[in-house]
Amino acid sequence: MSTAETQTRQTPGEPSDGPVAGTQERRTPGLVPVTETMRTAERRPPEPPGLAQPPARLPSAFWRLLGSELGLTFRRPRNQVMLAVLASVPVLIGIGLRIASGDEAVGGLIGAVAGNSLMLTFVSFSVLVLLLMPIAVSVVGGDSIAGEAGAGTLRYLLAAPAGRTRLLVVKYLNVVVFAYAVTVVVALSALITGLILFPVGPVTLLSGSTISVADGLLRILISVGYVGAGMAALAAVAVALSTFTEVSIGAIAATMVLVIVTQVLRAIPQLEGITPYLLPTWWTRFDAVLRSPVDFANLGQGLLVFGAYILLFGSIAWARFSGKDITS
Amino acid sequence: MTVVTQEAGAPFGAAPPSGDSAIVTRGLTKRFRGGQVAVDALDLTVPRGSVFGFLGPNGSGKTTTIRMLLGLVTPTAGEYSVLGLPLADALPRVGALVEGPAFYPYLSGEANLFRFDAADPTAPGGTAKQRVGEALERVGLSAAAGKRFRNYSLGMRQRLAIAAALLGPRELLILDEPTNGLDPQGTREVRALVKEIAADGTTVFVSSHLLTEVEQMCTHAAIMRTGNLVAQGTIASLNGGLATRVRVETPDVADAARVLGTLGLADVRTPDEGAASVTAELGAQAPEDINAALVREGVAVRGLAVVRPSLEDVFVGLTGEGFDVDG
Is the pTM of this model over 0.90? Predict the structure, then answer.
């Protein structure tokens, strides 16, 4: 649009009689077209001022879209049920251990938990981190793009225009927040159950040394951060798979199959060489916080692997989604 | 974020000069994987302020064209410009309804609109409530705002989709088959709404496979057939391509035809074997003079009518085939 035109449009006090002009155009005789319609179009009086300036992009818009995304995710009954199921598992484990330890003095893991309320969190993580937590993250991650595509809402989001990269980043961050919500829900449920069922006091670690309750809580916090990051890496895989289909159950199932296959591979001794490249290997390494002192080198290596997964699958997702024809 | 622009606009560099057109396409082509050409070298010009009917049978490439204009599908070749701006800047001022309504079934109509409003990077969150309220008001859904989308009737769903297209100030409205699946009452409502929106100066680009609909609503039209543009222009100019005819109903077919011939009317035809009528191009003759001449010559005139060409005649004339009216 030239400057001259813009100025004409902004001329104040110009009557806006668009429709009248429209009826006049009807008299133009002769078929065909392009030049003719352009000429008649030029005869139209300028449009009312006000829309000449492109509306500015708002910096807050990204957070508004993320807020909308989070609202959808956490108000969705399906996701609430998954969180509730995950919250109930530590309670069941706690009750089971309480009953098991009630009869007589037992050693090992049960003894450790029965002796201290904080240990239930780590036990719950080790039970859930290999299957139930990945399932929950797979469901939300696999649904992220494919679900919108399948419902047809994707075309309206992109026409809004949400922007492909912006939408993908928002979608991924949303799954990351959900992954951390899953982790926090498990930890909190385990912590509360533990505090109710088992004695509070200094924590005896796997290595035999003892730490204070405050130190124990700090280590729970570190393990939440680490396990959440592991789930965020899986979220990247799920979102990437989600950009390849319009059927969300397909992306969800594919992610779960990957989780299960990698665990099978881990169990085959001959394939020991590849285990450092598999996510589940690193998910269980949160137990580094139970060493004395905390084995940060191990955690750091795990975080590097998670970061590599996020980078790789994030790139795949972007490459696929940014050029995809949206035909659903 | 400029990503959408790059995807949709990058292959063509700068947008083509748009003049004062809401939509311009030059050689716009989409070939899907598998070689099927959905849109073939489309040159479309939609003047600002027009109500532009995008007409064609199902499968003629209308929706693919609209998807390209909205940046959903990347063209294989050609260029286009919407509102003369980079696509990412243009889209916030474009309201769209593409291939029917699509919403989150478990959310209310109002919550659905908030969702799509949040996706527009130029829409301030503070005034979202006002925009959503006005859009619902405009399509008459205020009373059902809190109802879940799942429980909406077909007509309400369509109206909600139009409400979503009307969130915020729009310069261009792209409506893909807006009356699809609506009952006659709903169809009338949508047409009234389109006229109202156009009266505010908004350009409306409406695709349809219904000729009568385009004829009633639109100032301009383009006709598509199997991915090609057959014609475009004002409705009057499209109709103008065919002559207005006069039809005489009479038992004296032969005499009537002779009289019309002597009056200098071109293309005198007796439409059907045994039909009691004759038609001819009206030309510059006044119908009353024709009637007087017929009566003077003793031809019994039962009826005399001036038949203006309809868009359907134009379509049939241009493509040599009928129109998929039922769709």
Answer: no
Q: How many domains does chain A have?
A: 1
Q: Which residues contact A299 (CB under 8 A, 6 or more apart)?
A: A222, A226, A285, A286, A288, A289
- Chain B residue with Cα closest to A159: B70
Q: Per the CB < 8 Å rule, is B106 touching A42?
A: no
Smallest Cα–Cα separation from B58: which of B312, B238, B314, B323? B323
* Nearest residue of A to residue B50, measured between CA atoms: A22
The mean pLDDT value for B250-272 works out to: 83
Asked if the structure places residue A1 within a domain, the reply is: no
- Given A40, A48, A158, which is nearest B201 (Cβ)? A48
Structure tokens at B213: 């609909």
Distance from CA of A43 to the nearest CA of B (A): 10
Nearest-CB residue to B48 (from A47, A61, A152): A47
A152 assigned to some structural domain: yes
Which helix (H) or strand (E) is B172 found in, with range? strand B172-176
- Full set of structural domains in chain B with CATH: 3-238 (3.40.50.300), 243-308 (3.30.70.100)
Per-residue b or e along B196-215, where b marks 16 or more CB atoms closer than 10 Å to that residue's CB:
ebbeebbbbbbbbbbbebbb
**Amino acid code (one letter) for A20:** V
Q: Nearest Cα to B126, choosing from A58, A39, A254, A189? A: A58
CA distance B138 to chain A (A): 19
| Residue A270, min C-alpha distance to chain B (Å) | 42
| Range from A42-56, A125-139, B305-319 that averages highest in pLDDT | A125-139
